[in-house]
Write a structure and sequence with these properties.
single chain; 373 residues; alpha+beta; Beta-Lactamase; Arc Repressor Mutant, subunit A; 3 domains; 5-stranded antiparallel β-sheet; 14 helices; globular; disordered N terminus
Length: 373
């Protein structure tokens, strides 16, 4: 759907929010455009817990469950940033986590066990209403992970200008449903843009979100055989079954399975996470493991491949970011400009990447685009 004539990206965003308020554009599309405007890695629209109510995720975009896993439930029941923002009179409003955390936050249990473990560098929050509002709270939060730089002054200005438009657009649109504290609402998973399937310990599908149903319907990675969801590739099917068996017995573990396609396109990565007892509330009693699927070729840019290369080859954060830009066909000069680095510095980083990945020429690094993430 074409937007009304707009003279600049900010005007386009404001027009998008207006269209969404009128119902001519769906909220997930609006969230995706906000995500892109702030160059975020993950974006979530949610109602925070308050007075015994549950954390409720209305919409989720590119939320990487392998990085959050069971920690999301703990984070959902502790809202130090929002609480501190309310105490300082900053909410409702648009603000950044580092603006509202206490000075001793870095030594806190929450930072050590949740925030630091998930490795969030910074978070922009639109606190559109307080939890004590008759409608309930509503937060839009955007995260950036390492090695992406933190949000800038320009981001702050844009967020503050967009806030009143979002505030008007969301009035009466999102009401927190009553639910038992700590429960995970399965319906919220339908708003997750990543395909996700919940399996029993015997490999039976107990829930699949809308994105997973679309992946199954495409028929190039998954299929339904004898009433069970299985990868088309026989080896991949065996590996997934083993991963589910292991995840069901190894609480808190993540197991990765590469699922090849029948053609020369890059494979899909399946990441299987065990379901801790505390996160099974609201799900089937048989739920034992969550599997979510990342399609390398549908991922914007090459951040996923660069992150995988960082793990495989021991790249530094800076080298990972340089590799990502190289995979995006950026020149050394372009990378130096974007990263505000000297060209000589970028060339040194490229040499280090070549050495660590055992490649001989810069063009050889493009082979990492096919890396099963």
């Amino acid at each position: 759907m074409a937007l009304a004539k707009a003279s600049d990206p900010e005007s386009e965003l404001i027009a998008t929010i207006g269209m969404t308020a009128l119902g001519t554009l769906d909220w997930m599309s609006c969230l995706e455009r906000l995500h892109d405007a702030f160059n975020a890695d993950s974006t979530l629209m949610y109602a925070p817990p308050y007075g015994g109510s549950s954390f409720v995720a209305f919409m989720m975009h590119k939320v990487d469950l392998s990085r959050i896993g069971a920690k999301a439930q703990r984070y959902a029941t502790k809202t130090p940033f929002l609480d501190e923002a309310i105490a300082r009179g900053l909410a409702p409003g648009a603000f950044f986590d580092r603006d509202v955390v206490p000075t001793d936050f870095n030594e806190s249990e929450h930072n050590r066990d949740v925030f630091k473990a998930i490795d969030w560098t910074d978070g922009l929050q639109f606190a559109l209403r307080l939890p004590i509002s008759p409608e309930g709270g509503l937060i839009i939060k955007l995260w950036r992970f390492h090695p992406t730089p933190c949000f800038t002054a320009a981001d702050r200005g844009l967020a503050e200008r967009l806030f009143p438009h979002l505030l008007r657009a969301t009035v009466g649109k999102f009401t927190s449903p009553p639910a038992r504290a700590g429960a995970m609402a399965p319906s919220a998973l339908d708003a997750l843009s990543t395909p996700l399937i919940i399996f029993s310990m015997h490999g039976k599908e107990t829930y699949s979100n809308a994105a997973a149903q679309n992946l199954i319907n495409k028929g190039d990675v998954l299929s339904v055989r004898n009433g069970k969801v299985e990868p088309l590739d026989a080896k991949g099917a065996r590996s997934l079954k083993q991963a589910i068996d292991q995840a069901a017995t190894l609480d808190g573990q993540s197991i990765e399975v590469v699922l090849p396609r029948g053609d020369d396109r890059a494979p899909v990565l399946c990441i299987v996470n065990s379901l801790a007892n505390a996160t099974r509330d609201g799900l089937s009693a048989e739920a034992a493991a969550i599997a979510y699927f990342i399609d390398v070729e549908s991922h914007e840019g090459h951040a996923v491949q660069a992150r995988r290369a960082q793990v495989l080859f021991g790249l530094t954060d800076a080298e990972c970011e340089v590799l990502r830009l190289l995979l995006d066909d950026r020149s050394v000069d372009d990378i130096a400009t974007e990263r505000r680095s000297a060209i000589a510095t970028v060339r040194t980083q490229v040499k280090a990447i070549l050495l660590k990945t055992r490649k001989h020429r810069q063009s050889d690094l493009l082979q990492l685009r096919r890396l099963a993430i």
